[in-house]
Amino acid sequence: MTESDHTTGEIPAEFLEDGHVDLGVLGVAAWVTDVGLVRKRNEDRLLVRMLWGGSHLLLLIADGAGGHERGDKAAEQVVLTFSENFPSDAEAPPGGAKDWLAAAIAEAHERVRELAEGAGRPPASTVVGLLIETGSLCGWRFHVGDSRLYSREVGGMVSQLIRDHNIANGLIDWGLVVSQAMKVAEGARLTQVLGGGVDQEPELHGPLQLHPGQSLLIASDGVFGHNGSREVLLPAMKAGELPIIERAAGLKAAVLVGEAPDNLTAVLWDVPSGLVATIHRDTVTNSMVAVTDDEITRRVARSTSEDGDYDDDEEEESDGPSLWSSAGLVAALLVLAVVLSVLRLDSVPAESPDSLPEGPVHTEPAIETPAVQPGFEPPAPALEPDIELPDTVPEAEAPAAAPDIELPDSEAEPPVIEPASEPEPAPKPEPQPEAPATQQPEPETPATEAAVQPATDAP
User: Fold this and answer.
1) I need a labelling partner for 254 at 20 to 30 A (CA). Which of 32, 315, 356, 409 fits?
2) In the sheet where 203-209 sits, what is the strand order?
3) Is 12 left (phi over 0), alpha (psi -120 to 50) or beta?
4) Is the distance from CB of 176 to CB of 337 less than 8 angstroms?
């Protein structure tokens, strides 16, 4: 790589158009790339290369961030950095795959940042790829941004091996339910890119055990992001049905049938059948949490937050950097969580007044019962709620007590006993001149005498 290549950002011409390469014992890799139906220039770049005398294979795609200045140059710098750090000849450097990849990503990040000029949106790029060790058939995946890596197992199961670095997935990490996070406006904006004034946090994972017959696809978002309900990826990943070159071409044609508003680039590789690993490694499983509508709320403690606010589909330039600071993003996430909590409270039906603890227990009005003189039993029938009882207890107002009172011998029959058998007298009883209010007995007088005394004075 010459100094001219570094400054001008030139890459081999075969990676600027559709192509394929014979990888020896690792079979064939094919790729396609296109500007799409809307964009004016293609800002995607790719790299496919056998490394260090055939000991490793590198598959890589870089997608310049749309709406940012010199996105094509940013993607070129990413590819050039990996090309310089992973040569086809010589020997593998000391260390391991993760060390090599981390160093190359960090260097690419700095080189993209150096492209920034003026006050416009700084250049930025995504990166996604797979580093395969030939002897062990193990792979190490790496990515920053929203370009993706897909796998189709021999049994037919297709899975996405990485997850986009965007606001929606950041909210999921903070505990928001997936179905709600997917509805958040601006949720597709990137929180991780190379360049752009943001400290990158790449995801490196491996070694992952690969299997003969497995199909692997890496793609920019222009390949998978604008197809609606049409299935375009699965036919391309059915190893053995068609030659890999034809399947890659079919994938490109299927995308261009749709709207194709973005650049599209894809690299396709099948693990050759019958290939046997000669080196044993302790492998890991893919630890990415699948993003599905059935996923329950997860809460993950994080010491750092995602930075950045890139929209890879924007084409207009802004007056300044669009990145969110760490504090700004955290504040926005907290505000959103509060709003969602309020919405959940509003959705709970309010309790009816009857269920409130301070409300009346019975719906019928309570009946005030007059104090009963000593010796009287409470009246058996309940009084009507609209009868207003006098302060005193006239003989006519105590119908239930008359049958239970044993009257002493007397020459005259009490005039007030007969009306007592009628439970519903007029509200105002006839006054008894022989029993004025001033003649009420003292409290110590027995109850029977107080009730009968007016009868003995009757004419």
Assistant:
1) 315
2) 44-51, 56-63, 127-133, 138-144, 203-209
3) beta
4) yes
272 assigned to some structural domain: yes
pTM: 0.62
Is 46 within a domain? Answer: yes
Q: What is the DSSP string of 187-218?
A: TTSBS--EETT-----EEEEEEEP-TT-EEEE
**Whether 235 contacts 250, CB under 8 Å:** yes
* Total domain count, the chain: 1
**Chain Cα centroid distance, residue 43:** 32
The domain that holds 237 is classified in CATH as: 3.60.40.10
Terminal alpha carbon distance of the chain: 140
Looking at residue 62, the DSSP 8-state letter turns out to be E
Residue 83 lies in a domain: yes
pLDDT score, position 318? 37
**The domain containing residue 109 runs over which residues?**
3-160+190-285
| Residue 358 covered by a domain | no
pLDDT digits (tens, 9 = 90+) for 72-131: 999 999 999 999 999 998 889 999 999 999 999 999 999 999 988 776 788 999 999 999
SS3 of 295-359? CCCCCCCCCCCCCCCECCCCCCCCCCCCCCCHHHHHHHHHHHHHHHHHHHHHCCCCCCHHHCCCC
Q: How do residues 411-450 score in pLDDT, each as one tens digit? A: 445 444 444 445 555 555 555 555 444 444 444 444 433 3
CA atoms of 33 and 19, how far apart (whole Å): 9
**Rounded Cα distance, 379 and 398, in Å:** 7
